[in-house]
Amino acid sequence: QLQLQESGPGLVKPSETLSLTCTVSGDSISSSSYHWGWIRQPPGKGLEWIGSIYNTGSTYYNPSLKSRVTISVDTSKNQFSLKLSSVTAADTAVYYCARHSRWLQDGNVVSDFDIWGQGTMVTVSS
Amino acid sequence: QSVLTQPPSVSAAPGQKVTISCSGPSSNIGNNYVSWYQQLPGAAPKLLIYLNNRRPSGIPDRFSASKSGTSATLGITGLQTGDEADYYCGTWDTSLNAVVFGGGTKLTVL
A41, A74, A110, B97: which is deepest, by most CB within 10 A? Predict the structure, then answer.
């Protein structure tokens, strides 16, 4: 059964870089036809997509965060990672990793997140 | 401000039916497939509907969805107290080249 687990520091100082890793078990990132994504949720607010990656290393990001985000994949460890630079209090949120289905069907994009990690709370504070 | 518009809250009595709407421009809902997510209190979101109206294995048929033009609707029948959750719609926005979500709708089962 596929499982995703986020890990990383729960507290990051303002202006520093937030780094999280998602470990995938039950499926191989390198042989999977799925993409892998990061989504965050500030306390009491809605979902915001951060970005996604394919096993080839091809990435695509939320335009509003693109200048600060880097997502990478380590197929040898079956992990993918998120780095968000120059963080502020506005980046305080629960961060989720998820398996991302994305393909074209009848000329329209299919995009959904079918398996999610439990989430990890990251607080930006000095 | 979310790209997709959902009502902040809906409510209904146990056993009744409720619908949750999701609207957006042609660059997202109008031309791409919609998914819906259920987020129970304190839990991660869970995929409820994909490809506009398909249910993943294990999702009861009390949950249904449809799409017409630039709007999508989630329907829940036979409401149970365990259905109290936040519900989000999501899709791809071709203009933004990004995944977009609605602001979420809090369902209260009175």
Answer: A41
